[in-house]
Write a structure and sequence with these properties.
mainly alpha; single chain; 2 strands
Length: 192
């Protein structure tokens, strides 16, 4: 049987029921997520279906698709290049904590990847998303990923260094140990 996924970012993507159920019923375990990622790598015709699944904000399980996007961003960022604009379009709209964490991590990987080149517009959008994550009410992990992504961009944009210093100095006393560790690392990096 074949499913059509309706999304505001994709018209229709054909996905077979078995794969759809596999992603829908997946869990956060490394073995499970690796299995889906490896399946997509071996069957690239399913890549667009995973992207559609993970970027469909109406899909209550979209965070499970984001897990795979995150893993691909880490290991095979070049596969995501055709979908980066779609990722930018939805990244700031996620509500599920697992999706927010996963997409923040994916953005960090895509930002720092030496295997791909982002357009100026994509870089600006990733900077904006990361700044919003950093000053918003996100949990520690998304803020840490945003810090690292912005630390990378600070090497090229002086204004980001000033912005990071201001945000970190204001937030540092009230943040967790994880945030503080990431902040110290980023401050060292931008002070060089």
């Amino acid at each position: 049987m074949i499913f059509k996924i309706q999304s505001r970012f994709l018209r229709f993507v054909v996905m077979d029921r078995e794969f759809y159920n596999r992603v829908s019923k997946s869990n956060a375990g490394t073995e499970c997520r690796n299995g889906i990622r490896d399946f997509v790598l071996q069957n690239p015709e399913y890549l667009e279906a995973v992207i559609a699944f993970g970027t469909d904000l109406a899909n209550k399980n979209q965070y499970k698709g984001v897990w795979i996007i995150e893993m691909l961003a880490e290991t095979h960022p070049q596969l995501l290049v055709p979908y980066i604009n779609r990722i930018c379009d939805v990244a700031s709209h996620y509500k599920h904590e697992s999706a927010i964490r996963g997409i923040s991590r994916a953005i960090n990987f895509l930002t720092q990847s030496k295997q791909i080149s982002l357009t100026e517009e994509q870089q600006e959008r990733f900077m904006e998303i990361s700044l919003d994550r950093l000053i918003g009410d996100a949990k520690v992990a998304p803020k840490s990923f945003a810090l690292h992504a912005l630390g990378h961009y600070a090497q090229k944009h002086e204004w980001i260094k000033d912005e990071l210093r201001n945000i970190i100095s204001k937030d540092f006393p009230s943040q967790s140990a994880g945030y503080k560790a990431a902040a110290r690392e980023v401050l060292r990096k931008i002070s060089r």
